[in-house]
Write a structure and sequence with these properties.
The structure holds two protein chains of two kinds. By secondary structure, chain A is an all-alpha fold. Helix content of chain A is 72%, strand content 0%. Chain B starts with a helix and ends with a helix. Chain B is elongated and about 65 Å long. The chains are: A mainly alpha, B mainly alpha.
């Protein structure tokens, strides 16, 4: 067959969402959630077979407590992201964190990620807000990577007590250059994949 | 507990500070951002419920020895590669990731390998990408960021090997 394969028609999942909504688009439950749900059910079944119902309940109680503790912080993170998206001046952000912001933009992103309080519940909504108001992939990558590698929140709360001071400090020192490098690599790749700017 | 309290105070302090700045822009701005934030929250809670409540089970069925056994001090670059894959595959929250790292150190894991493990886990643990990053951010950005992050655990291990532990 010399005929080129037919292109699949674009999925029409936008059709039902004709109603325009201001702000970010929210995603329905997708395959990723289903994958995790299946993994969780299978794992819970394995725990049940190994440890009986007590083992299942013990983990459930522990994780429910954890969830209850995290919930207010998730709310705080969502509000933080929404406020930041609203108050940050778009032109200023795209000048200091946009594609033309150079090394300075990557450094600002890194500094921002390093001082950002809270956990994933703050970092990701705020990063999404930055993207919305004009930061480019590179600066946002620098921010997310900086938060995850040199941010103090996780290091103080978890890494220091579990891994010890020596390892943690050593690991952070080694990680210092990574956010800027990751942001620079991100920009380098981005302009080659999307020469005409981000598709939206 | 103390660290958690400090984190909560800075967190809610920041929320109040930016909330006040939004309020200064006018009631409509405050109202619409409160609405956006609350809708995000409602949308995200089921995903986080599944992640937090479910990850305990996933972590419980993955034996830590399987991961730590691969990270010995003489495992070299193969050990680093294994560490990166293990970091990406580690389920659960920070307690699980760091505990496995700590066990690996205790049973004689090499520092460069454990650093590669922790950095890889921090950068692109698969479960965190799916449960935390994708719900909040454009999926394209998340995969892009994960992809450009791949070299950096190796870089961190290389630096650790070159300098040696102080």
């Amino acid at each position: 067959m010399a005929e080129p394969p037919l292109k699949d028609p674009a999925p029409a999942d936008d059709a039902g969402e004709a109603e325009p909504r201001p702000g970010r688009k929210r995603k329905p439950i997708g395959w990723s959630m289903l994958t995790i749900a299946v993994l969780v059910v299978v794992s819970a079944a394995l725990v049940w077979r190994r440890d009986g119902i007590d083992g299942v309940l013990e983990i459930l109680t522990h994780d429910l407590l954890l969830f209850g503790g995290i919930l207010p912080r998730v709310l705080a993170g969502c509000l933080l992201g929404a406020f930041i998206a609203e108050i940050l001046p778009h032109e200023k952000v795209s000048r200091s964190l946009g594609p033309e912001s150079g090394l300075k933009g990557l450094l600002i992103g890194t500094a921002f990620g390093a001082i950002l309080p809270g956990g994933p519940f703050t970092a990701y909504p705020v990063a999404a807000a930055l993207l919305t108001v004009g930061a480019d992939f590179g600066a946002t990558i620098a921010m997310v990577v900086s938060w995850t590698l040199i941010g103090y929140g996780r290091a103080i709360a978890w890494e220091l007590p579990i891994m010890g001071t020596d390892f943690t400090l050593w690991r952070i020192v080694i990680s210092l250059p990574i956010p800027v490098l990751a942001g620079a690599l991100g920009r380098f790749v981005f302009v080659r994949i999307y020469p005409k700017g981000a598709p939206e | 507990m103390n660290a958690a309290l400090i984190i909560d105070i800075t967190l809610w302090g920041s929320v109040l500070a930016v909330g006040y700045m939004a309020f200064r822009r006018g009631g409509a701005v405050l109202k619409s951002s409160l609405r956006e934030g609350t809708l995000d929250f409602i949308n995200i809670v089921p995903r986080i419920a599944l992640g937090v409540i479910g990850s305990g089970y996933i972590a419980a069925v993955i034996p830590a020895e399987v991961i730590t056994g691969w990270l010995g001090p003489n495992s070299g670059w193969l050990g680093v590669l294994t560490a990166v894959i293990a970091g990406a595959a580690t389920p659960g929250g920070p307690v699980v990731g760091f505990s496995i790292g700590a066990v690996a150190l205790k049973v004689g894991g090499g520092t460069p390998q454990v650093i590669a493990y922790v950095v890889a886990w921090a950068l692109f643990a698969f479960q965190r990408l799916i449960l935390w990053e994708i719900p909040f951010m454009p999926a394209r950005f998340v995969w892009f960021r994960a992809a450009v992050s791949v070299p950096f655990p190796f870089l961190a291990a290389a630096i650790a090997m070159a300098i040696g532990k102080p």
